[in-house]
């Protein structure tokens, strides 16, 4: 039986609430301030060693803005977010989580609830709709459940896009309003389904990560274009 690969469901409501539009505009606006050279992001607004930002841009985390962790011993649809102040480390973990799912044992609602725990608590910079766009809708998820489809992921590397690094070097203080970083992650997603079916495909995405000083990083959103 052919695999039902993860795609955004066409049955999902295509309308966007005004509050979601404002949050998305705020997040993209902050990123555009430091990613002026990325034409893909500009178009969106109108419709190995990893180089690091300045050392004081994301000091070691001491607290977290995430929702409380689930009770120990309970099985979760989505792994808990890591406690780290490094945007690249966090983005790599987030990408692996976005590319991993188990439709055999968890519902679409449970999966989305797990992803929600990764989001920043600052609503102004949280674009959860861009995250849900990476997840199959309920109808497709139901078919995936019937097909016992699940996916695992391996992350190869994560890096700041070249335009981001250039902008940071030219204006190190430009990020200090929201502390939202752009990180591009590449890897591979492996799929499996009933009847010993299996497949794999390369994946890449650019993730917006908020890492305020003295706080753990949190997911801000998923950018619509992959920034090199």
UniProtKB/TrEMBL annotation:
Source organism, top-level taxon: Bacteria
Location of region: Disordered: 50-86
Protein name (Swiss-Prot/TrEMBL): Secreted protein
Alphabetically ordered keywords of this record: Membrane, Transmembrane, Transmembrane helix
Residues that span the membrane, as ranges: 21-45
Lineage, opening ranks: Bacteria, Bacillati, Actinomycetota, Actinomycetes, Kitasatosporales
């Amino acid at each position: 039986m052919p695999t039902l690969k993860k795609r955004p469901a066409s049955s999902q409501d295509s309308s966007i609430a005004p509050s979601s539009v404002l949050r998305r505009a705020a997040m993209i606006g902050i990123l555009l301030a430091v990613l002026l050279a990325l034409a893909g992001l500009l178009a969106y607004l109108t419709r190995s060693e990893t180089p690091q930002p300045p050392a004081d841009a994301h000091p070691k985390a001491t607290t977290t803005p995430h929702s409380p962790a689930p009770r120990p011993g309970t099985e979760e649809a989505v792994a808990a977010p890591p406690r780290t102040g490094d945007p690249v480390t966090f983005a790599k973990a987030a990408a692996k989580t976005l590319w991993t799912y188990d439709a055999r044992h968890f519902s679409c609602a449970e999966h989305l609830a797990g992803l929600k725990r990764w989001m920043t608590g600052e609503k102004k910079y949280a674009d959860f709709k861009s995250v849900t766009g990476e997840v199959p809708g309920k109808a497709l998820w139901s078919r995936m459940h019937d097909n016992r489809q699940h996916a695992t992921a391996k992350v190869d590397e994560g890096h700041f896009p070249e335009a981001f690094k250039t902008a940071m070097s030219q204006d190190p203080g430009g990020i200090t309003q929201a502390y939202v970083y752009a990180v591009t992650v590449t890897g591979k997603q492996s799929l499996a389904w009933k009847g010993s079916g299996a497949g794999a495909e390369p994946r890449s995405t650019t993730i917006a990560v908020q890492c305020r000083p003295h706080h753990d990083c949190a997911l801000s959103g998923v950018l619509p274009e992959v920034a090199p």
